Structure formats: structure tokens, C-alpha cells
Amino acid sequence: MRILAAMSGGVDSAVAAARAVEAGHEVVGVHLALSRAGGTLRTGSRGCCTIEDAMDARRVADILGIPFYVWDFSERFRQDVVDDFIAEYQAGRTPNPCMRCNQHIKFAALLERGLELGYDAVCTGHYAKLVDGPDGRELHRASEAAKDQSYVLGVLTAEQLAHTYFPLGDTPSKALVRAEAERRGFSVAKKPDSYDICFIPDGDTRGWLADKVGEADGEVVDRSGAVVGTHHGAHAYTVGQRRGLQLGVPAPDGKPRFVLEVQPVTNTVVVGPKEALATAEIAGERFSWAGRAQSEGEFACEVQIRAHADPVPAQAWFVDGTVRVRPEHPFDGVAPGQTAVLYEGTRVIGQFTIDRTVSAVPVPESVGARS
């Protein structure tokens, strides 16, 4: 196959590209430039996509003897990932930018350009498996549960899965990948993994958002509607948050309070006890299927609502363009805007963005239902 290897400058994508070459494919390395200010997206192990990362990727490509290019996707990244991130927070939701990047950049923009240029597939260093099933290509969890990245790949469609290549899916540990990189003479063998949000390398999401959308004082209320504190912008809070709440009135029982809801229209943050975070149902209209499309009706599945969360057995319904999920046991602290990925065993069925949640603990009418 003719393969485009997406090379981030990290150890995983380097070894993935090397394995693609060893497998006999015609490989071209591509580094995606996602920021016009190339030196600003990495601080230690935070962030990515710097000039340093591009040079690390180029050195690997030189060792492998493959062509290497840097493609500028910064404008599309800004529109589809960064601007979307800001808009979601302004709407009181908590987005996952890694999902949007995979959906719109790595497996849409990159793959689209690759197919136009005559390539057959995009290769990445993600830890996930591809299995050819009776209904086409299937996406499955990786062999190493601790490194499994099938959750952030749940946005891939059947067409995209047909043109995707994950050489690391069967590797039992990250330590083996690093050892292989060292044997191959890659300077990235001991490079730390990047984490957190790549375009907020200092990790200060609240400060970054305040700079982008400004601050506006508002009220923090409890579930009865009583004012218990103030804030400088509801967009800086997310469901389940405990730290950073400026509460002037202690809870009657003296226990900590958590964010239960963000109401952007009134710039209000609702707080309450931890048990009020229990969520009995989630639903959403923005969905996709990873392979075979799910027919309308009820089906059993497992649901994962965060990248490193445990899957939860559940019943799901797909009716009239809406996916609804009721877990066997309530979720803990689900925020609208998060992504729910549905599994059948190790196989990814599909995903949806959570638009609505139903609390397992009744909410007083003075506050309103979580949504």
C-alpha cells in the first residue's frame, strides 16, 4: 500500500512509521503544522506540534529513508478544533479537543488530501486494533488496556476505518515501543509523552479561556437557588469540578460542594453535594457509527464517557436521530459536551456528543433540570 505516516515527533508515531516501512509499504512521512506560531505549543511534556517536534520527526524519516513533508493545517485546526473548543465552553459544555482533532484533522483533512494524492491509508501511532469483520473494517481496543486509545478514535467512520493503519495495536506495552525506538537509533526513544490540551501548553484552561472570551461576574447558587458565592465567568467551570469555587456560604452539612450545572445564558454556576452528580441517563443527536450503522431500536452495550474511564454496562436506544443511554449504575459527574463511546465487547460501535443528562437525584424546580 501507499501510506501517509502521520509523524507527530513522538515515539509512537516514529515506531508506527518504521513498522509500516518494514511491512513493505511505500511510506511518506507527514508532520502536521497546527499552529502559525510554531514554537508555542510545547512546555516540557505538555503540548505538541512545535518546530522541535517537526525536526524530531524529520530525523526519524531520514533514518528510515522515506520522504518527509510538513503540511500546514493550522487554519483548519483553528476553525474545527480551537474555535469549537471556545464555542462549546461558552455554551456551558465540556468538549474533548482530541476527539475533534481526530475527527476533523488527522482522519478527515489529512486522509482526504492523501486519497486525492493517490495514497491508500493514513498510518498513526494510536494504540487500537483494526479487524476485518463480516460487515467491513471494525475498530477494537488495543492489546494493552492501559494504553488503549480506541475511545478517542470512536469518531472514525466506516469509510475512514477502511483507509486507516494502526501498527501498534497488538503491542503489549509502551516500554516495548520505547525499546524498539532505541534499537532503531531514534532520538525520540526517551521523549516524554505529550498530555493535556496541546494548544494550552501551560495547562491553565481557565486563564486561556478568560483571555479568549473575557470575564463576566456571576452567581454561584445551590440546588435551591440560594446564592452561595460568585465567579468571574461561567465558561471557566465544568460539571464535577470541586477546586476553584469561590463560595462564601458553607454547606449545611459542612461537606464539599461540586459543580452540578453551568448555565451560560444567565452566567450561573449551580453547585451541590457529590451524590447529586449521579447521572441516570445521557442523550445526544451528534453521533457517528464506527463501521456498521446501528439500526433503530434498543441494544445492549458498554459505554465509556472519558478517555481513561472504565466502561459501564448499559442499555441504549437509537430512535429518530437521537441516541439515549441508561447505564446499569449511574455515571458520576457527566458534563454536556463530553463524548460517549459505545462498545460491544472490545469493538467500538460508535459515539455521540452528550447534549442532555438526567440526574439520578431530583433537582428542585427553582434551579431547573440539568441539560
UniProtKB/TrEMBL annotation:
**Annotated family:** Belongs to the MnmA/TRMU family.
Name of the protein: tRNA-specific 2-thiouridylase MnmA
Q: Which organism is it from?
A: Microbacterium protaetiae
Which residue numbers delimit the tRNA-specific 2-thiouridylase MnmA-like C-terminal domain?
281-350
* Keyword Disulfide bond attributed: yes
E.C. no? 2.8.1.13
Indicate the principal place this protein occupies in or around the cell. cytoplasm
Q: Name the Pfam families for this protein.
A: tRNA_Me_trans (PF03054), tRNA_Me_trans_C (PF20258), tRNA_Me_trans_M (PF20259)
